[in-house]
């Protein structure tokens, strides 16, 4: 492994473990069961991805196209809903949440999205429904009360411009939902988006009246651009000038892990990029995504010989620790227990 820079102190008072879609290495993602495992395993925050139903209800799915995360394809009554749409410039064929009412979505059951890699999770296929954002908040509030600790919620608004275009904007509904629950009026909430305009809108709406709510600018690969700004690349947003601009409306950035320590041609960790240093200089925290415990996702430094799809807990912990040394302030992981282990040194 390459020689890395000396450990850097994070901006945050405490480095946070974020359960990415819950504990999605151990249960089908974005189910209450996945959130339950994440909370049991010590996650500080749990993450719902938000999309809209036809009747304007915020529900939790990785994408608005749901053939990979539900059993919709096995429902003959919905066969006619299969269609092709262009979402953020990408043509996709399948079934879309905005074509279903909440009542219809509630007849579906979740399934494991990465079935080839997470075969054990397929044992839970068909057991869990698609949760609403309201249901998830109520669940987290109950878990927080039972455990005597505050659990943050870090919702991501998916495809904001697209949903605006089909008459189902989510930003104000998200704020109204947070305001409607006693728990989210005080518990830590961090709203994420890969787009820019909606975060600026939320920044203006929130002002300083909601100190428990923060904003996170997600970032894709350097050559890609936000769906609402084709003239700006994420690479430009990661420069000192770009980071200063983000700091005017957001509290943190969420880059991919490989934007912090990229991989070399051999698949091993290369030299540390300046992103964490530059973000901290702009006053932004850094919350990278996503650490996953299977060999398939690990840098070559940390893989073992157990096979591509095999869980490699020691490798995942070691990889997280390499990134912690760069001074990150929080991190998304599919396996919060391993994130906790990496952070707590146990």
What do you see in this structure?
The strands form four sheets. Strands 7-2-1-13 form a four-stranded parallel beta sheet. The protein has 346 residues and is of the alpha/beta class.
Question: How would you summarize what this structure contains?
Answer:
The protein is built from eleven helices and 13 strands.
Structural topology:
Layout: E1 16-19, H1 32-40, E2 45-46, E3 49-52, E4 58-60, E5 83-87, E6 90-94, H2 102-105, H3 133-147, E7 152-153, E8 156-157, H4 160-165, H5 171-180, E9 189-193, H6 197-206, E10 213-218, H7 234-237, H8 240-246, E11 252-254, H9 275-281, E12 285-286, H10 313-324, E13 330-333, H11 336-344
Parallel strand pairs: 1-2, 1-13, 2-7, 3-8, 9-10, 10-11, 11-12
Antiparallel strand pairs: 3-4, 5-6
Helix pairs in contact: 1-3, 10-11
What are the salient characteristics of this protein?
alpha/beta; 346 residues; 14% strand; four-stranded parallel β-sheet
Number of strands: 13
Helix content range: 25-40%
Major β-sheet strand ordering: 7-2-1-13
Largest sheet: 4 strands, parallel
Oligomer: single chain
Task: Name the shape in a single word.
Answer: globular
Unreliable stretches, pLDDT < 50, 5 or more residues?
1-6
Structural Rg: 19 Å
> β content, as a range?
5-15%
What is the count of DSSP helices, taking H or I runs of 4+ residues?
11
- How would you classify the helix and strand content by structural class? alpha/beta
| Mean pLDDT score | 96
């Amino acid at each position: 492994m390459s020689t890395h820079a000396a450990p850097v102190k994070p901006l945050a008072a405490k480095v946070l473990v974020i359960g990415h879609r819950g504990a999605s290495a151990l249960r089908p993602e974005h189910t209450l069961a996945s959130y339950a495992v994440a909370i049991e395993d010590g996650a500080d925050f749990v993450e719902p991805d938000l999309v809209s139903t036809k009747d304007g209800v915020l529900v939790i799915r990785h994408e608005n196209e749901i053939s990979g995360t539900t059993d919709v394809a096995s429902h003959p009554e919905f066969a006619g809903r299969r269609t092709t749409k262009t979402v953020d410039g990408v043509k996709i064929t399948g079934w879309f949440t905005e074509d279903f009412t909440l009542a219809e979505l509630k007849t579906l059951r979740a399934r494991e999205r990465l079935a080839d890699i997470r075969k054990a999770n397929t044992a839970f296929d068909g057991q869990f429904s698609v949760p609403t954002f309201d249901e998830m908040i109520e669940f987290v509030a109950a878990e927080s009360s039972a455990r005597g600790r505050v659990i943050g919620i870090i919702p991501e608004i998916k495809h904001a411009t697209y949903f605006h275009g089909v008459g189902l904007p989510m930003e104000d509904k998200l704020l109204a939902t947070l305001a409607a629950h006693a728990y989210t009026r005080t518990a830590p909430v961090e709203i994420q988006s890969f787009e820019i305009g909606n975060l600026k809108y939320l920044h203006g709406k929130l002002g300083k009246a909601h100190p428990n709510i923060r904003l996170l600018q997600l970032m894709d690969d350097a050559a890609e651009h936000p769906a609402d700004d084709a003239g700006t690349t994420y690479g430009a947003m990661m420069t000192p000038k770009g980071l200063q601009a983000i700091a005017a409306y957001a509290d943190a950035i969420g880059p991919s892990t490989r934007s912090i320590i990229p991989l070399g041609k051999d698949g091993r960790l290369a030299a540390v990029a300046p992103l964490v240093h530059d973000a901290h200089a702009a006053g932004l925290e850094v919350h990278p995504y996503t650490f996953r415990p299977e060999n398939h996702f690990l840098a070559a430094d940390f893989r073992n010989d157990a096979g591509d799809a095999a869980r490699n807990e020691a490798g995942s912990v070691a990889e997280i620790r390499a990134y912690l040394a760069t001074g990150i302030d929080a991190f998304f992981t599919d396996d919060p227990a391993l994130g906790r282990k990496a952070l707590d040194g146990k």
